[in-house]
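Input record (Table S2, row 942):
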Amino acid sequence: MHLIVAEKNISARRIAEILGEGKRIAESKDTGVSTYSFGDTTTVGLRGHVVEIDFVPGYANWRSEESTPRSLIDAKTIKIPTERKIVALLQKLSRRADRVTIATDYDTEGELIGKEAFELIRVVNPKVVVDRARFSAITPQELKHAFTHTTELDFALAAAGEARQSIDLMWGASLTRFISLAARRGGQNILSVGRVQTPTLTMIVDREKEIEAFVPEKYWQLWLETEKSGERIEARHTHGRFLDKAAAEHARDRTKAPLVVTEVKFGEKQDRAPSPFDTTTYIVAAARLGFSAANAMRIAEDLYMNGFISYPRTDNTVYPPSLDIEGILKTLRSSPFKKDVEWVTANRRAVPTRGKKSTTDHPPIHPTGAATREALGDDAFRIYELVLRRFLATLAPDARWKTLKILFDAGGEEYTATGGQLIEPGWHTVYPFSEVQETILPPFATGEHLPIKRVTLDEKETQPPARYTQSKLIQRMEELGLGTKSTRHEVIAKLVSRKYVEGSPLRPTLVGRVVTESLEQHADMITKPDMTQTIEAHMQQIKESTRTREDVIRESRQMLHRAFDQLEANETVIGEDIRGRTAEEMNLGKCPVCEGILGIKHLRGNTQFIGCSRYPECSFNIGLPTAQWGFAVRTDEVCEKHHLNFVRLVRKGARPWDIGCPLCHHLNSNKESLAEIPSMTKALAEKILSQHVYTVAEISRSSPESLAKRLGIPLVTAHQLISDAGSVLEKLRRRSECRKFMRERLVPRKGRSPAKIFTALKELGITELSGLANTDAATLKKAGVSDTETDQILTEAKTLYYGQLLKDIGIPAVSLKKYIAAGITDPEMFCNQPPASLSKLAGVSPATVQRHVDLVCAYLKKPVPKKFTQLQIEKGKKELLGIRGITRAEMENLSRAGIINATTLLLADAEEVAADSGIAVGKIREFLAAIQKKKDNAIIQL
Ligand SMILES: [Zn+2]
Ligand SMILES: [Zn+2]
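Output record (zinc ion complex):
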């Protein structure tokens, strides 16, 4: 079998379709991974990297004494499968293969992915022939050529990729760990540092500092308005910017009619057709259409995989001679841009345009197949159109402009107006993405006199440099040799996701700035592009086999050790600096109660809340959902009413949860419960809010005196309010307890949410456990609870609710457990059956049962069931008094403990009776012995 290994599933399918040439392609799935077979050939797609480089075990604990951040520099690494199913299938297929062709992407990353596959294959089939197919577009022509001209894997190229992986892991892991530990940050709050990431962030921070340091300067511009053949014309003073206001005013005052035409200059300007797209120029052009760098790359990769455009990761801006331009034009004739293709074919320039960079790996990005909007969807089609039109533009003739420059004189001051007219649109015909602005002036003759309609002196200010847009930043990174064409957009996305930068254009967040500045101060090597450039140069040497991977990694280790020398020496300063300055990023604004600052507080174990900086003097706080729902961060938005920053909960892989203004949120979530306080009038409600009392809990915690004083209300009203708040709080507690109970017992089912059932139950009048315990199966079913759930819920609700009730009545836990185990849960049971039977059922001594019965019946206001007749009781008393050692007082105490005759005493537990009657246990034992003896005697007498 001939096995072809592609970089992704989609390219595996495309390759099979193209190489299969009309043969039936059999798709089969093995543990969810597809393969495509025709004849004796099978293709399988990886998912990019299917293994990952990581440290050998033993380095996971950040706080370990042995594996310090620095120890990660020299830590050994291993490769771990990340896509186990694909790895297993690849090895299974390789066992049967007699030839394997690696057909991953044609660049460093693709070569490394190919080498990883090669190593996995070698493990199971050491002898199989492995070759490599390289192509820049997934089209029939390219693929057929690549598969009939296969070569060897380029191990030097792969080694360069591997070296980059190792170095990135070692730098990223050790520095991230060091800085995070120094700043005492963990979990979702770590501070990441990276080899390419940090110098890139530094550029954004530096730009921000330039903007802040910028001092605008005033300047003045002078222009006038004239008219010719009813058309309004503007002319600028030829001095340009006046830096001196007096000089500008002087020139303005000297400007007097008539305006005389002194010179008319005609000219022509060539407007060169644009050069072919490399990755960077493509990203810049896509950004003008509103695509972020990451999005533009994702769409381009998709188009490549589907054979619509060539490989989008390229530094080349010169079409190679081998590129079949005629063939491409022919293919594109069946695209929706037929007319443009025909126009270009008819008006071709002699040689296509060329850019400055010529490399041999891939051609510039160009279209390779015909696509329609229906097939691609709007966004992908816009990108496809951009690439296609750019390709056409590089084949189209230059455009030509006719230019016109008029010079005027007005009282000795010189003015000028310029016009431009596109006389030959050339490439603009097929490339509408770059703006064409014509200014057409009417004809003028030298010596002509014109009126001056208006003279205007504009005062302006010089502007600070602009912040970086994503595409500008990518261009700058390329100039500095930071990252590669494949990684630059990912680095920027990472800076955004780690909250180091935000907005568009990009600006650093406080934490981004603090980390950068701290590193700059103590280990500036990490923030400067030089180090990264050096490493890139070393990569090149590995590719050219002039240096080994090990050698380059060794040098990088030394560089990193030097950085750590500086860092470790300054660890305390760095940590304190970052901690001190980033505290601000959690601040939200002024505390509504005092002069303090409200801030988000994160405690250990996922607890987070908003508290006041003046705690403990000011205890104002707002609760937040635990960090499991998302880590609370501040956003830029500010509440107009409360002047507090908004709060957002962010969780990896989930949509953020916007809390909004924390105080608005606080007010809203407490509105309903405050309204449940019966004594809360509208006036009172306004009063408490104005005094910053927001929750029922706060009211119930207050002392009547302080609340009366704070709200300016009578003491009696305050008393009522506090007592009402207490009841509401209790009601809320019971309600949430009931919901929790139901939620834990409802089996998750599609189309049925617990919330729905809660609403239905509320309508049926059940909001608390007591309601659940007293309801019946029919009611629960009506609310949407299933048959099986109903039984369980009813039984457990009774147990829980009555258990709680009995406990509140005063039944101790040990006995309660016995009652519940015996099914004695309903308190009514204590009042409508003889205690003796309860005692038997539960295995609790009769005396104790009697005491419990007394308690429960008193609580339920029901008569205590009588166990003995008055006569029996009198008889029992006599019996007890007849026992040696029992006095009248002791007899009374015993009967209070439920002992009414000798038999009950004999059956009871001595220690329990002792506890209940207050008689020493030793004495009780003496009584028992006496009864026993009397009994024995009675038997002897018989
Ligand atoms: Zn406060
Ligand atoms: Zn608000």
